Each structure stands twice: as C-alpha cells, then as structure tokens.
Amino acid sequence: MDLNLIKKLIKAVETSEITDFFIEEGDLKIKISKKTAPVIQSAPQYIEAKLPQTQNETTASVQASPEQKEAKPEIPAANLHEVRSPIVGTFYRAPAPDADSYVNVGDKVSEGNVLCIIEAMKLMNEIESDATGKIVKILVENATAVEYNQPLFLIEKN
Amino acid sequence: MLTIEDFDIKLETETFGRNFVVCDEVDSTNRFLLDSKEFDEHGTVVFAEFQTKGRGRKDREWVSQKGLNLTFSILITKKLKKINVNLIHFAASLSVAQALENLFQLNINLKWPNDVLVGEKKIAGILLESISKGEKINRLVVGIGINVNQPTFSGKFNIQPTSTKIELKRIVSRERLLSEILNILESNYRTLRKDPLKIMNDWRARCKMIGEKIRIVDENIDKYGILEDIDNEGYVLLKTNGKVEKINYGDISLR
Fold it and tell me: pTM above the 0.90 mark?
C-alpha cells in the first residue's frame, strides 16, 4: 500500500467539494469521507448549547479544525473534557493585567493546576483543572463575561 | 508580637479562629491558606505580623507596618453551596464595621462591596479569593487587613488610609479587636444562611454612598450615575438617565 498515495488522495478530497470518495484497485479499497459539520464560531453561541449537544458539537468542531483534518485518528468525544465556569463573572487568563497567562493552547495540564480566574463581584476565584491532559482550545476571550456553567477550556485527556 | 492569651480569652466562637496559625512573616495570608495542604479545617485563621506580598484586588499592594496592624485570613469550606458567595463580602465588611463600632464607637462608612471607611478614609480592606474545581468552590478565603496602631502612612493610595491610632489618638489592643471580629463574623456567617436579608439591611444602613452621584470604573467600564441602591444579591443598582442598571464589578468613588 502506498501511504503517500493515500495522503495525496486525502489532500485532494479535502481541498475539493467532494464529501465522499471511493476507489477500488485490485485488492486495495480506499474510502474517504469528509464531514461537513458546523464549526463553532464564537463563545456566545456556545453558551446556548446545552448538555447533550455540547459534547457532539465539540467533537464536530475539533474534526473540522485544520490540524485535525490531516488524516489523524479522530479524537473520540470521551477524550475531550470541558472545564466549565462554576459562577457568573469575568474571565481572566492571568492573575494580574500585566502577568503571564496561566495556560495557553498546547500546554499540558494536570488535575489541580490553575487555569484561569473568574472574578465575581470582586471575589477572585481560581479555577483548577479537573482533568489531566492538553489544552486544545480556550473558548472565552480574556476579560469577558461568562455565564454559570459556560465551557471555558477544552482539554484532551491523556 | 500578638499575645495569644489576650486574644484567646475573648474568643467566643465555635470554629472561627479555634485553629489559629501565627506567622511572623508570610508572603500573603490568603495565599498561605489557598495553597496549604496542611490546614484545611473550616474556620482556620492565619495571622501574620508582616506580609511580604500583601495584596488587594488585581494584585494591588496592601502595605502594613510590621507588628502594628491586623492582617489575617479565614478559611471557609463549609456550607458554601448553601449561600450566595457574593454576600460573603457584605458579611465580612459588616463584621469589621460592627467590631470597630462596638469597641471604639467609630462612625463607619461601608463602600461597595467590602471597603471599611471612617469618613472617606480607608481603615480596613478585604480580599476574597477562592479555588474551585469542576463546578464546586472548595475553599474560600476571607483576607482582612485593618490599620490599627500604625500612626502614619506615606506613599500614594487609591483611597487615603486611616487607622484606629489616627482616629482615637491612642494604642488599642489588636488581640481584642481580632477576637471581636471573629466572634461577629462567625455569627454573621450563620445569619447569611438563615436570613441573608438581615446582613444586607445592616450593611446598607452603613453605606453612605447610596443616593449619591458616583463613578464606577474598571478595565472595560467607566460610568457615572446615581447609586440607587445595593440589591439583595449584592449588585450595584446604578441609575443613569432614568434607567437602572445592575453592575457587579468595578471601583466606586464619589463624583
């Protein structure tokens, strides 16, 4: 089997309008299908997505993101963990305006690591990670308002 | 140094301050309790004669001369699910106000949400910090700084400071003040669960800014209006052009 050929085919499908592709040559059968899942564009829309759908949409967004298209194995939803806000308040990625962010996309975090601060009426609440893994997405802009239970981070669990 | 016996003899609490840690010097008493794996008992108090990194909100500095004032933090781990955590600001600042009134008959003015003033000068500040994991707040720390026997303050401040020494022109017992605050705070924390309205009413009765023209400022807010009231959830009700808006953050000052 020619791996390069397969990669080329995937690339070709990816850049085309085709959603399903099938080729048979002797014993070799290749089927490539492209999902046209909606990409989640901004956090506010995200808030509206209540529980069951949230997990699905999350997976969809990851599949549709560029780095995931490269014929990598899909990350099953079970491996993705959402860190949510326990309170209504303002989301801060750093302890002070001029300080470094607690975490960035790509960082490895362990359970108990501080990820951000949510300030609610001058109560500075540090949010600790409740999962161990890698930060794959930060879902909220710094210094913006967050709602109760709003997803803040996506963590790809180890 | 703080005389533990003088403090202990006046302490009438069940839990607050029963586990009492004294540090000669620590970075910040809040940080100490937030990070401590060793002390996790509800009501644990950490007292420091000096904080090397005493702070307020957004890492503003809290400056306090060694051995003259009160800088301490109380760990709260119980009943956090049953109360509105926002109201802890009001219970804490009210407790400091009531203690200063009881012992020294000071005329206290409370500034939203948790500054304790005498007139327009700041005598005490409070910083609330908590840690949550998942959907739960597990540890909440109430940090309290009170200017007691410090005679002068030099430097630039957001709000001009004062102390009991400046107001009363005498040295007072820090131990007595500390025990009084903890006695009242424990009782107010209980009231917060049963009758939060009582706490809010007692707090509002000491807020002289209600009805006044104010300015509210923060990173992405700068508004002028009339401080219509503080509602029962602790939000500022700001009236601008006949409309009332709920605000839950920012620094308030008289216009």
Answer: no
